[in-house]
């Protein structure tokens, strides 16, 4: 396999990993399992499912994008395809 | 003139002076500056500009109200309008930045070596952006007419004039730097009242934590529990539990996410940063700046609802109404908003007091427009006048910044994709820049006209804009980058089928081209296909687009060699050009 293919594969793996987390926090914790999670309370009086739907998923999205950007920059250097 | 009006004139006037000052400083002299700000915008600043670009009058004015009245079910908007940035950052922005051209339809046309694909993209872009602009124009008019008490159309003309100055002169460069200023104004205006109200109700300054805290009224209850209890005692449904169908919530969230990632005016913002890696981090910064408002909004919504209930229905036990708001002693915010028609009551039982309960036959608050929740919130909470003036300036900033971004997307599509791309291919840079300015001026006039004479379907357009972006633009862009095998036939048929199915589904329930009376079935959950609302159908359209494009492509000839090289090239950051022209 060529370096270009390996780089692309590593990229796809990273994106899939990030999107799994993206799916779990929003569609999973925020919608599908929200009612069950609501029996748990966090940060005082937040029902957990409600918190994921209105707060937690958004915080996770932010962290995810920066994590992705950081990992991609590493991959760029590793495969020597970075800019300048 | 009242003290509040004086404050409003001062604050709004100061922000306008700032926008014009920036416009004069940031004039565009080349098409590169006009379309993509010379590709020299710092990623953090671009993130801030994207935040202002994205957060419209709807985010600023309507969203918290939507949350206030729908509670947990409104989470779809919070997750949908933020989660799209993950898709944008990981699937589109870096690659489109690497490609390094000026517009979204240009990439679609080049990648699928098809003018048809480019034209379909241009049409989707213009329809989605124009429908969106109408809402912004309305937002500007409402803010002016309520707070400065000048006629709606004067407010609209003033807003158009300001956008005209900085967008026509400065193009993307002018728009970017004013959007940065507008972000600062709108976020300050949104968070200051939220902090005040959170302190009043819970003693916690940070609204994001206040929403989960104990009430400071001595009841010892958590704010959310108190809200649930108050609402249920009065016969409303509980705030924190789900009311709608799970499938519909799921698909609506997905449609809003895909639509967000596919809206051209947002994508274009990532063409303005110097490097591919900047496009990645800039999406993160954009979401940081958006999240500040989007995580505050749920607190604003819940607290405003609680304040509203407590102000009107002072006693939460229904039979005794002796503590309820008296009709002959209404607070001034109540009468002010009543004048605008956004608030209406009817003393059904003639006891001289207002009852605000879930039972429709007994409820006397016959109309509470959700838009007033943010705008009236500081008044309901008795905040100082300068805070109320700030909210007016913030609402106007949110509307102006989004309008400018949309108008820029429209004018670039006209001057770059239609004039330069199809009609007159050999015009020089200077002529194209002039065409861009004329297209911008024209777009402002059309948007202003539509703002003054909003078509009857104005309220339905959000579904349309997101449906178009989700079912046509996002899949085409994603396949263009991730599926080398997809060819022109596959892409065009995919876009048309995704778009077609989504449009037919929306028109089926909302009327053909939104003409009243032409709907094929009543727009109620019982009639929807599998219970999917028209607004949630964009995700289904996107799925159809993906399946058709991939299937058709696998039966037809692969794309030519140079297109396959193009795809390989955009997949690696190396070799991106700092500031390209053609």
Summarize the structure.
The complex is a heterodimer of chains A (84) and B (582). With 84 residues, chain A is mostly helical. Chain A has helices at 3-32, 34-37, 48-78, and strands at 41-42, 46-47.
Order of helices and strands of chain A: HHEEH
The beta-strand count of chain A equals: 2
- Total helices of chain A: the number is 3
* Average of the residue pLDDT scores of chain B: 87
Number of domains of chain A: 1
Mean pLDDT of chain A equals 94
Account of the 3D structure:
The complex is a heterodimer of chains A (84) and B (582). Chain A has helices spanning 3-32, 34-37, 48-78, and strands at 41-42, 46-47. Chain A has 84 residues and is mainly α. Chain A has one domain (3-77). Chain A has a two-stranded antiparallel sheet with strand order 1-2. In chain A, strand 1 (41-42) and strand 2 (46-47) form a beta hairpin. In chain A, 39% of the residues are buried. The model of chain A has no long low-confidence stretch (mean pLDDT 94). Chain B is an all-alpha fold and 582 residues long. Chain B has a single domain, classed as Sodium/glucose cotransporter (Up-down Bundle). Chain B is built from 21 helices and two strands. In chain B, strands 1-2 form a two-stranded antiparallel sheet. In chain B, helix 4 (57-70) packs across helix 13. The longest helix of chain B has 51 residues, at 152-202. Chain B starts with a helix and ends in a 12-residue tail after the last helix. The relative contact order of chain B is 0.17. The mean pLDDT of chain B is 87. The interface between A and B is large, with 45 and 51 residues.
């Amino acid at each position: 396999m060529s370096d270009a293919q390996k780089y692309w594969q590593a990229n796809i793996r990273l994106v899939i990993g990030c999107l799994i987390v993206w799916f779990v926090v929003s569609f999973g914790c925020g919608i599908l399992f929200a009612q069950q999670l609501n029996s748990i309370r966090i940060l005082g009086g937040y029902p957990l499912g409600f918190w994921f739907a209105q707060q937690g998923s958004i915080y996770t999205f932010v962290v995810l994008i920066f994590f992705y950007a950081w990992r991609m920059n590493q991959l760029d250097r590793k495969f020597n395809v970075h800019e300048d | 003139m009242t003290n509040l009006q004086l404050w409003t004139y001062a604050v709004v006037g100061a922000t306008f002076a700032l926008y014009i000052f920036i416009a004069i400083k940031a004039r565009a002299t080349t098409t590169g500056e006009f379309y993509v700000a010379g590709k020299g915008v710092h990623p953090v600043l671009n993130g801030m500009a994207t935040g202002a670009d994205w957060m419209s009058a709807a985010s600023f004015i309507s969203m918290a109200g939507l949350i206030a009245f729908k509670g947990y079910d409104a989470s779809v908007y919070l997750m949908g309008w933020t989660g799209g940035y993950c898709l944008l950052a990981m699937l589109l922005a870096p690659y489109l930045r690497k490609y390094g051209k000026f517009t979204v339809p240009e990439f679609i046309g080049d990648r699928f070596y098809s003018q048809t694909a480019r034209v379909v993209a241009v049409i989707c872009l213009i329809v989605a952006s124009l429908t969106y602009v109408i809402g912004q124009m309305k937002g500007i008019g409402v803010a002016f007419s309520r707070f400065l008490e000048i006629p709606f159309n004067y407010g609209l003309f003033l807003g158009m004039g300001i956008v005209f100055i900085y967008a026509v002169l400065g193009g993307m460069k002018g728009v970017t730097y004013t959007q940065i200023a507008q972000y600062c104004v709108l976020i300050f205006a949104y968070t200051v009242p939220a902090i005040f109200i959170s302190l009043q109700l819970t003693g916690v300054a940070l609204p994001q934590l206040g929403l989960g805290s104990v009430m400071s009224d001595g009841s010892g209850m958590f704010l959310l529990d108190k809200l649930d209890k108050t609402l249920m005692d009065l016969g409303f449904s509980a705030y924190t539990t789900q009311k709608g169908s799970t499938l519909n919530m799921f698909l609506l969230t997905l449609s809003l996410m895909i639509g967000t990632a596919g809206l051209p005016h947002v994508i274009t913002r990532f063409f303005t940063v110097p490097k591919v890696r900047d496009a990645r981090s800039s999406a993160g910064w954009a979401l940081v700046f958006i999240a500040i408002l989007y995580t505050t909004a749920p607190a604003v919504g819940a607290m405003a609802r609680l304040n509203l209930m407590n102000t009107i229905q002072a006693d939460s036990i229904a039979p005794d109404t002796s503590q309820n708001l008296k009709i002959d002693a209404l607070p001034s915010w109540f009468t002010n908003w009543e004048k605008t028609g956004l608030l209406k009551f009817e003393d059904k039982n003639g006891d001289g007091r207002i009852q605000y309960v879930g039972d429709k036959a007994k409820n006397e608050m016959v109309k509470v427009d959700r838009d007033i929740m943010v705008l009236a919130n500081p008044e309901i909470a008795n905040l100082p006048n300068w805070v109320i003036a700030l909210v007016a300036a913030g609402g106007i900033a949110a509307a102006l910044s989004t309008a400018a971004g949309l108008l820029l997307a429209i004018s670039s599509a006209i001057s770059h994709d239609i004039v330069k791309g199809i009609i007159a291919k050999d015009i020089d840079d200077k002529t194209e820049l002039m065409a861009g300015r004329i297209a911008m001026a024209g777009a402002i006039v059309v948007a202003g006209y539509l703002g003054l004479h909003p078509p009857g379907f104005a309220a339905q357009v959000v579904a349309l804009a997101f449906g178009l972006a989700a079912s046509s633009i996002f899949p085409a862009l994603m396949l263009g980058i991730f599926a080398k095998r997809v060819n022109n036939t596959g892409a065009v048929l995919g876009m048309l089928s995704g778009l077609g199915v989504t449009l037919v589904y929306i028109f089926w329930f909302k009327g053909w081209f939104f003409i009243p009376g032409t709907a094929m079935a009543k727009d109620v959950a019982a009639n929807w296909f599998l219970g999917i609302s028209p607004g949630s159908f964009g995700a289904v359209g996107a799925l159809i687009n993906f399946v058709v494009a991939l299937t058709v492509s696998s039966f037809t000839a692969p794309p030519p060699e140079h297109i396959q090289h193009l795809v390989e090239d955009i997949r690696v950051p190396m070799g991106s050009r700092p500031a390209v022209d053609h």
